[in-house]
């Protein structure tokens, strides 16, 4: 036997890992932590079992969302580079079986939450909303990812539905503080996914993918992106007017310099400047991810 792993197999495994969108899983875990951190600040007791069951559930749902999107990808688009038709069909089937397994496990987790008295009507509705969003995003005949609404569904799932599940499993009832926080975070998430559209625009044109950017066109997408950023930080700035201490929200403004850089670099590209896609995607990710992290840390420390 050769002492070193097969190079081709290693490359293929890396590409298969990309299909699971590990960064999306990380962001889903982060927003879930945010939702779970708020109830303790509001004086609610913390259930460790509900926390871990819920975390597993949202991770499995997000993973199923990514895999199903690949399963039902148009046949003219490759799943991995240099694949044969037989390899492609085998991979599709395997991804489909894994997705079914993930959704089945999710149903079991929901049942365990129910018998543990962790589910109320609101949390049940959000668990159902998660499943519906996964199906609408990836599966025919809906497949929002092919209709220009995929980025909106993805942002809503990661930044709105998932933190709501984390919150409701602990608090058992909704609260306006949660809504105040996740609405601007959803806007920042949508801005991030829109930035990813800019970086993949050439490939999307080649395969005629109906992304949000191609639906809006560059002329409208750029100001729309800027308005999402301004809207998000505007909501954060208004938190004291809504009856909450500014000390809760000020860490969100630590990412404001990244947001400004993001806006100016996208404007630079839109008027014909040389793009630095790595810089742009990194700043967009930092704005959404670090904002969520800083707010989460604030609540956990309190």
Going by helix content, strand content and strand pairing, the class is mainly alpha
Number of strands: 0
| Spatial separation of the terminal alpha carbons | 56 Å
Give me the strand/helix succession. Answer: HHHHHHHHHHHH
User: Taking Cα atoms only, what radius of gyration do you get, to the nearest Å?
Assistant: 20 Å
Q: In DSSP terms, counting alpha (H) and pi (I) runs of 4 or more, how many helices?
A: 12
Shape: flat
Return the average pLDDT rounded to an integer. Answer: 91
| Unreliable stretches covering 5 or more consecutive residues | none
The major beta sheet can be summarized as:
none
Structural overview:
The chain has 302 residues and is mainly α. Helix content is 74%, strand content 0%. It contains 12 helices and no strands. It has helices spanning 7-19, 22-41, 48-71, 85-115, 121-138, 150-171, 176-199, 201-206, 212-216, 218-237, 256-270, 277-301. Helix 2 packs antiparallel against helix 3 (48-71), helix 7 packs antiparallel against helix 12 (277-301) and helix 11 (256-270) packs antiparallel against helix 12. The longest helix is centred in the first third of the chain and has 31 residues, at 85-115. It is flat and about 55 Å long. The mean pLDDT is 91.
Feature tags:
mainly alpha
Task: Please describe the topology of this protein.
Layout: H1 7-19, H2 22-41, H3 48-71, H4 85-115, H5 121-138, H6 150-171, H7 176-199, H8 201-206, H9 212-216, H10 218-237, H11 256-270, H12 277-301
Helix pairs in contact: 2-3, 2-6, 2-12, 3-4, 3-5, 3-6, 5-6, 6-7, 7-10, 7-12, 10-11, 11-12
